[in-house]
Amino acid sequence: MKTIVKMENVSKDYGQGDVVVHALRGVNLEIAKGDFAALAGPSGSGKTTLLNMISGLDKPSAGKVWVDEAEVTAMGRTAKSRLRLNRIGFVFQAYNLIPVLTAYENAEYVLMLQGVAAKERKQKVMDLLKQVGLAGMEKRFPRELSGGQQQRVAIARAIAAEPALVLADEPTANVDSATAAALLDLMVQLNEERQATFLFSTHDQNVMDRSRRLILFKDGRIDQNGTPAELQANK
Amino acid sequence: MTFLLHAWRNIWRNGKRTAITVVAVTLTTAVLIVTLSLMRGFGDDMVHNATRLVVGDAQVHEADYRLDRSIYKSIANPDGILQAAQKAGIDAAPRSFSFGLVSSGHKSAGAMFWGVSPAAEKTAFELAKEMFEGSYLSDQAAGQVVLGRKLAKSLHAQVGAEIVAVVQAADGSLGNELFQVIGILKLAGEEIDRGAAIIHRQDFDSLFVSGGRVHEIALNAWDRMSPEQVVAKVSPAVSEASVAQTWRELMPQLASMVDMMDAALAIFGFIFFLAAGLGVMNTMLMATYERIREFGILKAIGASPWRILRDISTEAFVMSVISTSLGAIIGVAASLYLEAHPIDLSVFGSGDMSFSGVVFNPLWRATVDQQTVVVPVVVMWIVCVLASLYPATKAARLDPIRAINHV
Lengths: 235, 407
Hints:
The complex is a heterodimer. By secondary structure, chain A is of the alpha/beta class. Chain A has helices at 47-55, 77-87, 103-114, 118-131, 147-160, 177-194, 205-210, 228-234; strands at residues 3-14, 21-32, 36-40, 62-67, 70-71, 88-91, 165-169, 197-202, 213-218, 221-226. Chain A has one domain: Rossmann fold. Chain A contains eight helices and ten strands. In chain A, helix 3 (103-114) crosses helix 4 and helix 4 crosses helix 5. Chain A starts with a strand and ends with a helix. The relative contact order of chain B is 0.18. Helix content of chain B is 53%, strand content 20%. Chain B is an alpha+beta fold. Chain B is elongated. In chain B, the strands form three sheets. A six-stranded mixed β-barrel of chain B has the order 2-3-8-5-7-6, surrounded by four helices. In chain B, strands 11-14 form a two-stranded antiparallel sheet. The A-B interface holds A 52, 55, 57-58, 77-78, 81-82, 84-86, 88-90, 92, 96, 98-101, 105, 109-110, 112-114, 118, 157-158, 161 and B 2-3, 6, 9-10, 13, 293-294, 297-305, 307, 400-401, 404.
């Protein structure tokens, strides 16, 4: 299967001198296209840093990163913006919707940035909002939506541009377990129907259980990597 | 249009702060429009008094005449110049001048006699309308004189009075004539007020035995062309011994004053625009600081730095359009009021206000035109957008990770 993310000896150090923090230590990782993978590990183990490296939001201290065969670590600022716009979708823990935009406009925003025509945008976003269960809530502003609904809008925004990869940083951390399960169902459905690759960082056991691949992080290194069943068997 | 809607919503996130900025920019725009209109009114009035009453856009003289106003220094080929002016659609008035003595009763005074063609003067200039008493010369005016107001006062001459002119004629003889005062001019400039005795050219020729000499041809195009164009049109007919000059060359002090007024206005405007710009910059900086996290998110989902810069500048532009629209309404309304109800400056002085021989109208009237409204509005748009560039650039250059984690 085609590789969508490839990381080669990626390290990330923060600080200088005696107070250097090694957030990532020589990470090698490949994620296949269409995968539904979860990065798990304790806080500070490097999960979010890894997502930031993949998206080009942060630069590794050493090593190389590819997304969809394009080398992120060799890109300039504009090229990275374009990569995030066209190939990567983001779902944040705190939803991070734009407060002055309605649910519809938040989901539409990336398509606007891409220059998609208004008519096409409308059709896509309406279909998408319907698919994430927000039909009829298009005109609501984030403050008028529950946490779960806001995260649904965030998911719609992340996949609106049909990216090759969706990076989700603790997407279920701020919602109750029932909502988390519903969101997870939604993301599984989108993964299956749209063939979008999902890569999560998570503490949520439910997410880990539903993922097809689990990457366990410890002290900036990949401790274990395999299907949940394989990791269970290795215990 | 969507980005305009987003900009509109963003600027009203903090309604109170935006309202304060809008009020400040609105008032600045309004004050600038009123100031420009008043200054335009003052300048127009000044130039009008200087040029439309007697001087015109340009004049032709014998080259040295203005240094030595001798009756012998007359223009060669005046008819050719008058024809050239007529062909170019420029109104022209030929004039003859010479000094003499006038007396009325026991009073006498030195005077500058103007020999004019009344019909040409009435067509080309507005002095004939500026009568304090009586009327201007008629075309067939023989033995009639119009006096400057201060000259008439010093002679104690009123309309209907007779004055005696005693002059040295061009042929060296002593000329004298009796004239009836037909009119007294309003204040029109120091030279005219104190010395002008305006008579028909035929009377002038007869009194001074001048042989039809013309000392000045005053040209007026009534804004159909610039003074420089007027000079260019008649120049081919002007002999080498004569010179055609614009009013700016004829009255350099007045031209300097007009230029100084423009410069003062530019400095005044700069200070106002700077203050408004700093206000907008402060607002946009605070608005940007409050949205650091949001800009981080936008960058994370693929918004380019240029896009963020454009969005913030658009917000500043929308705010400036609202403010300048309100400012234009207030400014134009106030200026129109001052156009209809001028400020009476005579309450601050004697009512006789002049500079460089040009009398100013004591009623200070505003003049509203496209320029007095469009210039402050458009410059304010530019200032607001420029003022937003600093916060916009800061936002565009934010590190997305730090921005997302900003509390």
